[in-house]
Amino acid sequence: MTSTDTGSTVSSSAPTPAPQTGGGVAGPRINLPVSRLQPAYQQVADQLRSLIIQGELVSGDRLPPEAELGSSFGVSRSTVREALRSLASQGLIETTRGTTGGTFVSRIKPAAVTSYLETSIGLMSGTDDLTIAHLLEARDMLEVPAASLAAKRHRPEHVEALRQAITREKASRGRTGKFSEHRQFHGLIMAATGNGLLPMVADPIFRVLQTRFLNPVEAEGFWAMVDQDHEEIVERIETGDAEGASAAMRAHLTNIRSAYHD
Ligand SMILES: [Zn+2]
Q1: pTM of the full predicted structure?
Q2: What is the number of domains present in the chain?
Q3: Residue 34 located in a structural domain
Q4: CB–CB of 110/199 below 8 Å?
Q5: Residue 31 alpha carbon to ligand 1 centre in Å
Q6: Range of 162's domain?
Q7: How far lies 28's CA from each of 3, 14, 15, 135, in Å?
Q8: d(CA 130, CA 122)
């Protein structure tokens, strides 16, 4: 047995004592992958994050003072502070000053989730891990059933907002404005499902498609087709035609595929 750090040594289930040397530092070989050894602050941050995700700590809860957290975890105050900085950078906690100040579990706003997802999806997209085909497939999986849900659950103000989005898109002169209104329209359908998670998840996909994959020029007649498709979708939603709304959305997504490049 040599002392080299080979794969077979690491996967061995029976630790072999390292040869004793005069230095007195050798001991039993530890078969723990290096990647699992995390800094103390990271372990504290991970545990606090788990408490938040599991709902043990909820939005608005005040965290115990640093000294108390330090003694609970058996780490120094500076380690606690570093863990809190890490959680704050992820938007999970926020610190306020003053007499009523302290460190609190954040109240997460949908816009923050959308923004985080947009940045992350934007960074990944265009790689083999996340191709435009993946984005369009996910979009289909979200929007086609969403149109059906919107037909069943919408309120009158949703239809009103959808019609206004169509009017604004028609009135927009530049393509940036038109695509922005186009995205709004699709976001409004997500909102009309009454499921608050859907707009949060779908909007980042719409945004990344527009910022990363839009062709420089639309085909002739593209916007007239969009207007017609949108009007049909709204009509089906308004009349509560769930199947028709889904079918109209599916056809529309096929029609606008040419606006995006690979
Ligand atoms: Zn559309």
Answers
A1: 0.73
A2: 2
A3: no
A4: yes
A5: 55
A6: 111-259
A7: 12, 10, 7, 50
A8: 9
